[in-house]
Amino acid sequence: MQISRKDFLKSSLILGGGFFLNGSKINSMSRFFQDATNLKVIRGNAGIYFGGGGTIGWYANEDGVLVIDTQFPKDAEIFHDDLKKKAQRKIDLLFNTHHHRDHTSGNYYFKDYVDT
């Protein structure tokens, strides 16, 4: 049986967390990871998006929208469609944590949607 790296990491995190958390916390963690195609709010106006290439970070409020990393073009498009529901404005700042393609391949998709 083959298991994807993403599924292995999710399962390991949930199982490993069971040693440190009570049952209600484990249930809330597993619900957090069940739908990996939508934006997840971490706190306030900041959150993450899980896709095929890793994680995109985001922050959105009335003053601006910030995006950290872009993954791959298809993930970038799905992320952007969800982000537009939270923020009805252009992205003010997009930056990449480093040059690897799983962090930067979606940059081209955002060329018409980012100011900087």
Shape: globular
Residues in β-strands, percent: 15-25%
CATH homologous superfamily assignment of the largest domain: Ribonuclease Z/Hydroxyacylglutathione hydrolase-like
Largest sheet properties: 5 strands, mixed
Distance from N terminus to C terminus (CA atoms, Å) equals 45 Å
Give the neighbour order of strands across the main sheet. 1-2-3-4-5
The percentage helix is: 25-40%
**Low-pLDDT ranges:** 29-37
> Which CATH architecture of the largest domain?
4-Layer Sandwich
Which class best fits the helix and strand makeup? alpha+beta
Write down the CATH class of the largest domain: Alpha Beta
Fill in the CATH topology of the largest domain. Metallo-beta-lactamase, Chain A
Overall domain count: 2
Mean pLDDT, nearest integer?
80
Let me know the number of strands. 5
- Given the structure, what is the number of helices? 4
Question: H/E element string?
Answer: HHEEEEHEH
Radius of gyration (Å): 15 Å
